[in-house]
Amino acid sequence: MKYLTKIEQLEQLSPAEKTKLKQVTDKFAFRSNDYYSSLIDWKDPYDPIRTIIVPSLQELDEWGRLDPSNEKSYCIMPGLEHKYPSTVLLLVSNVCDGICRYCFRKRVFINPQNEYLRDLPAAIQYIKQNSEITNVLLTGGDPLVLKTSKLENIIRQLRDIEHVQIIRIGTKIPAFNPSRIVEDPALLEIIKKYSTERKRIYIMTHFIHPRELTNLAVKAIGLLQQAGALIANQMPLIRGVNDNPEVLAELLAKLSFIGAAPYYIFQCRPALGNKFYTIPIEKGHEIVEQAKALVSGLAKRVRFVMSHSTGKIEIVGRTEDFVYFKYHRAAEDTDSGRFMALESNPEAYWLDDYTEVIRDYPIDLPYRSYGPE
């Protein structure tokens, strides 16, 4: 596998394009590989795979922030986040096989030494001491970039904790570099060993466009399933990639065909430089509903949500005058299950855009609440 970490390595770009895009890569990291770059139709400047991985000058627009979901406030220690009682996130890697241009953790690649887990024993001890933790999500970066032996060391120690039932691995490797899975039987043996009948390993894939579902990618998913992993797919809604209802429906359907359950469609987080990739919430809801109308029940289980600083909020529906939200998960118990009707704002990209005052929790929004006060 040949990795591309400098924009000058993209031979398909003209010298003028490389010079312009160097402004972007000086600010935000660039990374791809020859496999993923081969999926691009370089004759099409609007190719969706190109949009995912090749920088755009629009990333220099001053919009958004480096920590759009305020993850820092939930950090117990570097690389360990505990936002919801039952779930802990371990940022076990500060590297990805490719860097999505819309990444909401750009800060990980800007400060790679500060934003990932460096003290595994302390993290394991914290999880042991908090028996309400039943789910551990390995993320980063991408956990599958780690050496297989290092990944096994983490999984083995988590499996030794009785109250940890589910281990999730958030990864885009099946899309970026499926050979990592297909050509590493030791990785599959780890899945087979630690994904048991009562305590499964979930692989949270990140397919965002149907063209990522190559024969090799589908083979990688099949091998993970044969090893005992359960597959669920989560993705953001991205302008120029999957914001066409027919394209999105095709992706949802094909994911259901291969048993990679469509799980979440995320509102693109307002990370620094992400305006170009983001669809307004209400338009996004319309696109998602149009796509879901084209697929079977197994493909339309997906939820359209945003990972707000106060919790995971589902965009439930809309009328001419209101948009309806519900807390799917909440950082504070008082918000659990809260249902909100907010006055329509077609220009809103985030929950905070529905009010003139942007505050940390508790939210101070002009909503009609039908949940617990």
Give a structural overview.
The chain is α/β, with parallel strands linked by helices and 373 residues long. It has 2 domains: 3-278, Alpha-Beta Barrel (TIM Barrel); 304-373, no CATH class. It is built from 12 helices and 15 strands. The strands form 2 sheets. Strands 3-4-5-6-7-8-9-10-11-12-13-14-15 form a 13-stranded mixed sheet. A hairpin with a 2-residue loop joins strand 11 (303-308) and strand 12.
The number of E-state strands comes to: 15
Spatial gap, N to C terminus: 55 Å
| Assigned CATH superfamily of the largest domain | Aldolase class I
* Overall geometry: globular
The number of distinct structural domains comes to: 2
Order of helices and strands: EHEHHEEEHHEHEHHHEHEHEHEEEEE
The spatial strand order of the largest sheet comes to 3-4-5-6-7-8-9-10-11-12-13-14-15
Structural class: alpha/beta
Radius of gyration: 20 Å
CATH architecture of the largest domain: Alpha-Beta Barrel
Low-confidence stretches: 356-373
CATH fold-type name of the largest domain: TIM Barrel
Strand content: 15-25%
Rounded mean pLDDT is 93
Largest sheet: 13 strands, mixed
Measured as a percent range, the helix fraction is 25-40%
CATH class descriptor name of the largest domain: Alpha Beta
What is the overall number of helices?
12
Please sum up the structure shown.
With 373 residues, this protein is of the alpha/beta class.
Key terms for this structure?
28% helix, TIM Barrel, two-stranded antiparallel ribbon, 13-stranded mixed β-sheet, alpha/beta, 15 strands, 373 residues, 2 domains, disordered C terminus
